[in-house]
Every structure is written in C-alpha cells, then in structure tokens.
Design brief:
This protein is 45% helix and 10% strand. It is mainly alpha-helical.
C-alpha cells in the first residue's frame, strides 16, 4: 500500500504559502485550527499528536477561546447565565466599567494568578469603594470558573486568600419601643411598611411588590409571591420572582400589626397594589427609604436603616421562641437539604410565633433584647 496513511485524528493540509495547517474537531463539535502554521507536515502531525494526548487526559485547552478578551467573555457570561438576576447583572456591568477596566482588554489566558493578585491589591489601595471591589472580585472569580469549564484556561487564577468576602457587619436591632417611635414619627402612608418590616421581617422589595390579593385580613396572613426590582442606573422597575422557592411563602401577621394594615388598606392602598405612591403608581423603594430617613432623624435614631427593620424582625421572632427552621420559613431563606426536612415544623407554629410577637410588643422587656446582632441577609 503506497502513500501516507490517513490520520485517525485531525487534519493536515498544505497552504498556498507552502506552510502546513493542522486542525481537529474539539469536544464541543467546533473545528479548531492550530494557533500557528508549521514549516512541514511532520511538525503539524506532532502538534496533533500532543492535542490528542491532552484530550485523552482531559487536559486540552481551547486556545482560541483563551485568546478572547475578559471584557467580551464577561459580558457574554452576564448575558447568557440564567442564574444571574437583573440587579446583579447591572451591578457587575458597573463594576466592570469602574473597577475591572484594567483587566477588560486582557485575554483569558493572560489573566494569571499574579496578574489578578496585583489588580486586587492596587484596587484595594485606591479610592474605590471596598465593598464594590470585593463584589468585582467575586464576579471575576465566577467568570473565570466559567472559563475553566469551557476549556479556555486550566485553572482559576483568582487565588487571593480572603478576597471577595464581606465581613458580616454588626447591625443594630430596634427595641419594640423604638419601632413604635419610628412608626409614630413617619408619614402615615408608610406606617404599615415599617410594621411589616420590623415584625414580619419582609424585604423592602417584597413590601413594594405586595398585591391586594396577597393580603388576607380575615385569616391574618400575607403571602409573598413577588419581589419588586428597581434598577439603579436605568430606573426600570418590575416585579420578579423571589430568588429561591423559599422566598414564596405565607406569613402570619402578628395581631398587633393587623390594625396598621387594616388602616393602610382602607386609606392608602391602590386597587391592585398594597403600597402605591401619591399618584397611584407602584411605590418606589426609595420613597420608603426617604420617609424612614426623615422619621429616624426626628426620633434621634440615625444609626438605623430601613433594612435594619428586617434584622429587627428576625431577632424579635427569635426572642419570641422561633427556631432556626421557623426563621428560615418566616424569612424566606433557602437552606441546606438537612434543614429543609425540618421546615414542616413551622407550618403549625407560625400563628403561635405571630401571637408571641404581639405579646413581646405589649409586655416585652426591651432590656432583654440584644443591642446588635450579626446576620447575613
């Protein structure tokens, strides 16, 4: 038999220039060319042999994808990942522009561990916000993990110890008397929102996304179905599903909160939404924040934020005897599989917890409450 034996892996062809090109079909089904041409067929064959060996060991890298810039790859990651919500996508695009700009034009293959470490150190020495820089690092790390899975790089270069982790801040907890003072000081339209946040621990987006049909005054419950999302840069606002299935839940209203909600439904609720602005449009979260800021200034509680009301609600529920499983159900937190097996316990206890919260509001000793608590929301 004469002539060269047909290759069982890859193809080699002679170009008009006289040099040789090698190519093969990658695991994803695409045709991949060698990054350079060869002066003879033997060198091209040798390159294909090395590639075949890498593929058999699972060590092959997509050199073409490795030459993609971080900026282009990161934007494609944000566009295509189904797990990324609109708020986080907006945050990442802003951080890409503000903090990750020095890396944006580099190829994925160029982002080595020393390059990432030097970028992070320089960013932390600069004047940028440390929280957003840590967010940027987490985003960079997620993108590079995606690049590893796509075969563009062999190892994630984000190896800076402790980078990207936010230390849990010590958050203040309002006493029942302080909550009442804030409610009395705030514009009446927002009183129910403060009570729901402080005694039921609903998020601001869950409050703004609440529909009239979600409130059952007869049985004393609020069902959380949607979360109101407001984008900071575009100003766009829309209702979205909670991040996890645990976020969809029915929470019993503490009896002492019910009159505030009844009053709100009678005087300030819209036809479809519970919380609306003066024009009848869905209430903006920033409107609640501004009203709360004015109220806290009146009563000298500048250390409190509206988000602290949710932490307050968590702590007050725990003070009323809620277990970890109770809290996860009431707060809409997802949990490990082991904890999920115990969540059924709260189904019969939520009304007891709600009644106990009213007992705490009426007769509770605020001195027994912790002054602060560390909670990650």
């Amino acid at each position: 038999m004469t002539g060269r034996q047909r290759r069982r892996f890859g193809k080699v062809r002679k170009l008009p220039s006289g040099r040789w090109q090698a190519s093969f079909t990658a695991p994803d089904g695409t045709r991949q060319n060698a990054p350079e041409t060869f002066k003879n067929r033997t060198e091209a064959d040798r390159w294909l042999t090395l590639v075949e060996a890498d593929l058999s060991r699972g060590a092959w890298l997509n050199e073409g994808l490795g030459r993609e810039t971080f900026g282009n790859y990161a934007r494609a990651h944000l566009r295509d990942s189904p797990k990324i919500g609109p708020r986080w996508r907006e945050t990442c695009l802003r951080n890409l522009r503000l903090h990750l700009a020095p890396l944006e034009g580099k190829t994925l293959a160029e982002l080595t561990t020393p390059v990432v470490r030097e970028w992070y150190a320089a960013a932390m020495r600069g004047s940028g916000g440390k929280t957003s820089i840590r967010q940027s690092y987490r985003f960079l790390r997620a993108v590079m993990y995606s690049a590893v899975r796509d075969g563009a790089i062999a190892r994630n270069p984000c190896q800076v110890p402790g980078a990207g982790s936010d230390r849990a801040k010590e958050r203040p907890v309002a006493s029942p008397a302080q909550v009442l003072a804030l409610v009395e000081a705030i514009t009446p339209r927002y009183r129910a929102a403060v009570m729901i946040a402080a005694w039921m621990a609903l998020r601001r987006g869950e409050i703004c996304g609440m529909r009239v049909a979600d409130v059952d005054l007869e049985h004393g419950t609020i069902t959380v179905r949607k979360n109101r999302v407001e984008l900071l840069e575009s100003g766009e606002a829309f209702d979205d599903d909670p991040k996890t299935d645990a976020g969809k839940r029915t929470v019993v209203i503490p009896p002492h909160v019910l009159p505030f909600l009844v009053e709100h439904m009678q005087n300030w609720a819209g036809k479809d939404r519970v919380f609306v602005g003066r024009t009848g449009q869905p209430m903006r979260g920033d409107a609640i924040r501004q009203a709360f800021t004015r109220a806290r200034t009146k009563v000298g509680m500048e250390h409190l934020t509206f988000h602290d009301m949710r932490h307050t609600g968590s702590t007050l529920a725990a003070s009323a005897g809620a277990t970890l499983a109770d809290l996860k159900k009431r707060l809409g937190h997802s949990s490990s599989a082991a904890a999920l097996r115990y969540l059924h316990v709260v189904d019969g206890r939520d009304r007891e917890i709600a009644a106990a919260l009213t007992d705490l509001a009426t007769h509770g000793d605020s001195a027994k409450l912790p002054r602060s608590i560390v909670i990650k929301s």
